[in-house]
Amino acid sequence: MANEQRAGTAASEQPDAVRTEAAARPDAARTAELIEKLIRYARNRNMIGTLDMPYARNQLLELFRLDEPCEGYLAPEWSDVPDEPQKLLEALLDEAAASGLLPDNTTTWRDLLDAKVMGLLMPRPSETEARFRTLWAEQGIAAATDDFYALNKDSNYIRMDRIRKNEYWLHPSEFGEMEMTINLSKPEKTPQEIAQAGQAAAADYPQCLLCADNVGYAGRVNHPARQNLRIIPLELNGEAWFFQYSPYVYYNEHSIVFRREHVPMKLTRDTFARLLAFTEQFPHYFIGSNADLPIVGGSILSHDHFQAGRHTFPIEKAPTGQAHVHAAHPGVRVGVVDWPMSVLRLTADEREALLNAADDLYRFWQGYSDEQAGILASTEGPGGQTRHNTVTPIVRRRGGRYEMDLVLRNNRTDEAHPEGIFHPHRHLHHIKKENIGLIEVMGLAILPGRLLAETGAIARLLAGQKDWEAARASLTEQDPLKPHAVWIDELVERYGTRLDEAEANRVIRHDIGCKFVEILGHAGVFKRDREGREACARFLAQAGFKAQG
Ligand SMILES: [Zn+2]
């Protein structure tokens, strides 16, 4: 009895104390109303069911330290609920900052809370999977990916408000139209945020950004919050893999397919088998893998993964030359793609036939040297022989056929090209010095955000708003235009300084496009001159492929 009384007293006293604090917050009513709108947004977007609404409401009230919902929360319909969550979220994050819920009102902390809020309005991972499988079975895979992609945007995991900031243009070239983007969707970190991330303790959980352990993870100042991430299990080649969307959306329905285990990238026959298996299950998506060696590979080599999506890249539209056939691989045709890099396109009706031919070609390429073309399969290094040859494979369906592009790569360096012989050369580093990975191989340039301000300044020079001669003389090493100085000289020489600003921007963008095509040429192992074509023909002949009459 005494115990009950004590418990009763505590129960009635404590909420009172909290209630007083909440009531003292002048913004409490406004915060509660934002929460209610967000719940109704999630219900409208089918992220939660009607039965989930009180549950989600109570979770959000707790998160924002409120005792009760807003007035009218029981009304069956609300009229002014937006179709996108960002404005509601921004307002809620402002309230959180004002009421001391955020340690700092920086993008880092706001993004961490944002994902937590949306995570409370999501289906459970197994519910998302069940919905995906039902749609797949009843309406086909495209209906399943459409619905899952919509969830990824609705949940603000894919931040369309940021993605829309990216600059995009098409660059006409002899290889068709290249796609060009300046990536402005990643918010710039303040020096304070960079310092906080640097001071954060090193953590080994989750092991990397791709591991399935990220689902539901709260994040840290140096690791994104992923309460709103959902993944779909897949079976590829008899192994457990996962499918998810990339939050960065470099192209439509940009997906990541990653292995359940945290194991390093390794390109083998199994890789080709997995890629082909994926296109059987997702025939409306292409899929590709970055190469498995540094310099020519992707940014994450520690966790085996592929990138896929629903987008027709420029490379897919590029034609192939004469067809080649191999006596041991009937039904498979190989053509050299008309592309600045060295791309062999294999096509076949039978998956297994294509797999065998691709594996044979890859093995042959791994051991292939052609000194005349500067290609050495391996070199003697301090730790023994170092392998240099690999491929960037891309697989798609064309009608009922299987199509695989094998992009031949070599990562050797020498004194003249310490960053890589088949890598962007130094005179183009002012535009791009990073690895040429899968996405760029396919003809979509992803350029750093800094370029927008820099090219804007160059456009003003070409429009005569500032004197380049004088500016050039006083350029410091730190000046953002310093790396572009030689390029600006050329532009001024070619176009003068009397362009209007819009015209100046056009010529600059055209020039960047030309440089991107040149960069892809640097990454090509067989150059597009007569010697290069002959070297490519030698390779195909030695691999046993004969040109069809
Ligand atoms: Zn991992």
TrEMBL record:
The keyword Transferase applies. Keywords: Carbohydrate metabolism, Cytoplasm, Galactose metabolism, Nucleotidyltransferase, Transferase. GO terms for cellular component: cytoplasm. Pathway: Carbohydrate metabolism; galactose metabolism. It is an enzyme of class 2 (transferase). Residues 16-26 have a biased composition (Basic and acidic residues). Residues 1-26 are annotated as: Disordered. GO terms for molecular function: UDP-glucose:hexose-1-phosphate uridylyltransferase activity. One of its GO terms (biological process) is galactose metabolic process. Residues 280-455 form the Galactose-1-phosphate uridyl transferase C-terminal domain. It holds the Pfam family GalP_UDP_tr_C. Belongs to the galactose-1-phosphate uridylyltransferase type 2 family. This is Galactose-1-phosphate uridylyltransferase. It comes from Paenibacillus dendritiformis C454. The gene is galT.
